[in-house]
Amino acid sequence: MNDTPARGRPRSETARRAVLDAALELCQSDGYQQLTMKGIAETAGVGRQTVYRWWPAKQDVLIDALRDLALRKAERLDPETGDTLRDVRTLLDATFTLTTALTGNALIGLMAEAQHDPELSHRLQSTVIGPRRQALRALLARGVAEGSLSDGTVSLDLAVDFAFGTMWYRLISRHAPVDSRLAEQITTALTTLLRPGGTAQAEPEPGTAEAPEGRPVGTA
Amino acid sequence: MNDTPARGRPRSETARRAVLDAALELCQSDGYQQLTMKGIAETAGVGRQTVYRWWPAKQDVLIDALRDLALRKAERLDPETGDTLRDVRTLLDATFTLTTALTGNALIGLMAEAQHDPELSHRLQSTVIGPRRQALRALLARGVAEGSLSDGTVSLDLAVDFAFGTMWYRLISRHAPVDSRLAEQITTALTTLLRPGGTAQAEPEPGTAEAPEGRPVGTA
Amino acid sequence: MNDTPARGRPRSETARRAVLDAALELCQSDGYQQLTMKGIAETAGVGRQTVYRWWPAKQDVLIDALRDLALRKAERLDPETGDTLRDVRTLLDATFTLTTALTGNALIGLMAEAQHDPELSHRLQSTVIGPRRQALRALLARGVAEGSLSDGTVSLDLAVDFAFGTMWYRLISRHAPVDSRLAEQITTALTTLLRPGGTAQAEPEPGTAEAPEGRPVGTA
Amino acid sequence: MNDTPARGRPRSETARRAVLDAALELCQSDGYQQLTMKGIAETAGVGRQTVYRWWPAKQDVLIDALRDLALRKAERLDPETGDTLRDVRTLLDATFTLTTALTGNALIGLMAEAQHDPELSHRLQSTVIGPRRQALRALLARGVAEGSLSDGTVSLDLAVDFAFGTMWYRLISRHAPVDSRLAEQITTALTTLLRPGGTAQAEPEPGTAEAPEGRPVGTA
DNA sequence: CCTTAACCGAGACGGTACGTCCAGTCTTATA
DNA sequence: TATAAGACTGGACGTACCGTCTCGGTTAAGG
Question: How many inter-chain contacts (C to D, CB under 8 Å) are there?
Fold first, then answer.
């Protein structure tokens, strides 16, 4: 895999961790806008060039830090319980906790920056936003398949939008908390929304950009 | 009203408009992060000090521009039709159109910045976010009062979060468009969610209550 | 003389005096470089335009202030005593006192500015520097005419340069005071320098710019 | 000597020279007042921060430039000829040439600025004004020691003031040139002034600020 | 008496230099 | 070869003053 014979001084893992930690910490404490490459380097106790060598911009540091965090948390996006509603609620709760505690600032800042940076936008989609969307959608689709849910009145995609949209809306607007109670309320609402027996109107939902693998589940 | 006798040269309305227009335009074309006070001044053909004299930071320029835009649009937050559902859909549609076309970038950037600026957060709440929230909530409350809606299963606040949350989520994530069709779908979903006859037990665990046949509100 | 019929509000003498006083005071207290038109106007309690209306630049305010000061002092450049040496000493003393107490800063600043402003240079020559030069030179020439002095070894112009040059040198370099004692020492030195009987070497002094009326007096 | 191990990128000698050259050149061509840090940086083709990093203000750039110039010229302040008068004239001539050609504007501007900046005043004394004063005074003292001169009527310090004062006076007032001819005339005048046999009435000269090393040796 | 024109204060206007900070790049010595 | 250090060019920051311009209000001479 790594075909280069790896000569010279190897990359310092210490420096790598220090940079990622410093970036997340500074972003959460001072905000995305105030985060600077210089600040990251100084907080990490690392030369500036060392940061630039491995990450072209602060966006990249943050994305790497988020990915690293996810790996370390080894977070389960698939709760594996048989109970669909319980799984939905667990997923939402985990998402809310993580976002509220650690990554909210970074994510919102990155999102704002991504408005005019399609490449960044795509990277966020594929690493942060997309997987969670797909995980929730897959859960709901499982419920539909089991018959406990139905995508009659509203599509599953819109239901997912409701769940995560509420989270984002509250994160940025701060008019209400994002906590376990919200997870519960949303789960309840989704149940109502996707209650079997609702008349299907079967509008084929337009495919999302990253085309989740989830089968659209026949609207029959 | 204006008790100060207005001494000295009066403020130039031309310069004011040029600055606000330039700010919105630049923000929409280049993004919030790339927006600079210098750039605003130069695009507006105005001295830098003139911008700083009236607005301490780019946030303030943008907020003023948004407020000015709202005033100019003389946009109706209260559609005044008797039909509650129609009014909801109209409000959502108008909101989506405005946000998509003109103010999306600015708003997201401002929101990102507000994460560490409580004062800015409050100002956004009171001028941009709050009024729209309250307008939609009032419409829904009217529906409840009329009996066409019911806040049984989910609170009206959560319903509002669903509507605008979806908008924000799609604005920042860009996984799906924010258009009239979305307004329609959300309206339909809200109808389902707030269907009269839903067991009003508020927040506790959703029971297995049977729901009567909801009207499909066919959009076709 | 004043052919315009002088209609409208007449110029405020109060404002004029306030501006000139403020200029001199600020220049002496804060230095020439720190003197600003804005500061002059504010200290004088006068509108900025009122300053600009009558004086194009701070140089002009200062020159006017210096001229005004000279007029008010009604200072005698010609002491009228029969004793030439006494007159020389009196003139130097008066000059030193005035320059040290009030006008030193302004003069040096103006001089520095005049290095690249020939028009200013000429105005300073004709209003401030020149008259004093000529006054001293005339005194010395009178001494020569009376026989108490002789311009044999050194020209009168160089003698004048010695006297005022020392003053300027000490003003800017501050290595020694400019006081009555210096006036006395210089007078003594000039006596030595222009002592009758000194061997003439008769170098025809090149005329100075303002060509004082003083006869070069043949060195015969 | 340099005990710090010299970490990081070393200072660019190229940039240093470019800044000093640009400063002197601009000052001579446009005048001290018009000299700006920005202009220096741009003319030198150097970042603005690079100028500020090493010199806090334009004064410091100029003083450094003057010192650098003196070092490069490796100018002899002590001509080493046995003939005192010749040495005096040589020193004056060199001083006049240097000041007229290169440093006049800068020096006058610095002097004007030093009127309200004691620290700058002191620095100018110790680097520019003082050494020349002491060099000339030492020459004259040597002449006195040899018996070719006498500090009877006027003190050596006043004689030095005459020589350099005349230079300054003409530099700022521009009523006459500062050239070799002036050096010659001043030398002649000093000879007259310090002619042995002049009645020594011995006014105990007040010690000057910089207190030249020595007693002028017995006035034989 | 009553225009009326020039004066006056205040202060906004477009510009420009200030001195600071950070972005990214580079060049050194060291590991 | 990676690293910490730090100097490099470049550019936005927010401030201060420049010189110009418009206001409302004042003040005396001339009709």
Answer: 165
Q: What is the mean pLDDT of residues D201-220?
A: 37
Of C114, C173, C192, the CB nearest to D153: C192
Helix, strand, coil distribution of chain D in percent, nearest 5: 65, 0, 35
| Length in residues, chain D | 220
Q: How many CA atoms lie within 13 A of B120 on its CB side?
A: 21
Topology, domain D13-59: Arc Repressor Mutant, subunit A (1.10.10)
Classify domain B12-57 at the CATH superfamily level.
Answer: Homeodomain-like (1.10.10.60)
Contact A160, A140 (CB under 8 A): yes
**Average pLDDT rounded to a whole number, residues B14-24:** 96
- Go through B114-151 and write b for each residue having 16 or more CB atoms within 10 A of its CB, e for each that does not: bbbbeebbebbbeebbeebbebbbebbebbbeeebbbb
Which C residues 181-200 touch D at CB under 8 Å?
A: 185-186, 188-189, 192-193, 198
Q: Looking at the predicted structure, is the pLDDT value of residue B50 above 90?
A: yes
Smallest CA–CA distance, residue D73 to chain C, in Å, is 24
CATH of domain A13-58: 1.10.10.60
* pLDDT tens-digit series, residues B111-168: 888 888 888 999 988 888 899 999 999 999 999 998 888 887 789 999 999 999 999 9
Q: Subunits touching D (CB < 8 Å, at least 3 pairs)?
A: C
pLDDT(C220) > 60:
no
Cβ contact B91:B164 at 8 Å: no
Assess whether the region C13-57 and the region C75-193 belong to the same CATH fold: no
Distance from CA of D88 to the nearest CA of C (A): 17
* Over residues C188-214, mean pLDDT: 58
Domain residue extents for chain B: 12-57, 75-193
Output b/e per residue, D41-55; b: 16+ Cβ within 10 A. Answer: bebbebeeebbeeeb
Q: Measuring CA to CA, how many Å separate D157 from each of A119, B103, C166, D91, D187?
A: 77, 77, 11, 16, 15
Which CATH superfamily, name and number, covers C75-193? Tetracycline Repressor, domain 2 (1.10.357.10)
C74 φ/ψ sector (left φ>0, alpha ψ -120 to 50, else beta): left
Class of the CATH domain delimited by C13-57: mainly alpha
Confidence category of residue C25, pLDDT binned at 50, 70, 90:
confident
**A21-37 burial string, b = 16+ CB within 10 Å, else e?**
bbbbbbbbeebbbebeb
Cβ B5 to strand E below 7 Å: no
According to the 3-state scheme, what is the secondary structure of chain C? CCCCCCCCCCCCHHHHHHHHHHHHHHHHHHCCCCCCHHHHHHHHCCCHHHHHHHCCCHHHHHHHHHHHHHHHHCCCCCCCCCCHHHHHHHHHHHHHHHHHHHHHHHHHHHHHHHCCCHHHHHHHHHHHHHHHHHHHHHHHHHHHHHCCCCCCCCCHHHHHHHHHHHHHHHHHHCCCCCCHHHHHHHHHHHHHHCCCCCCCCCCCCCCCCCCCCCCCCCCC
- The reply to whether C164 touches chain D by the CB within 8 Å rule is yes
Least confident of C49-53, D3-7, D199-203: D199-203
Average pLDDT for residues A128-138, to the nearest whole number? 91
Q: CB distance C30–D169 less than 8 Å? A: no
Task: Tell me the nearest-neighbour CA distance from C203 into chain D, angstroms.
Answer: 9
Ramachandran area for residue B205 (φ above 0: left; ψ -120 to 50: alpha; else beta)? beta
* C76 CA to centre of own chain: 13
Q: Is B115 on the interface with A (CB under 8 A)?
A: yes
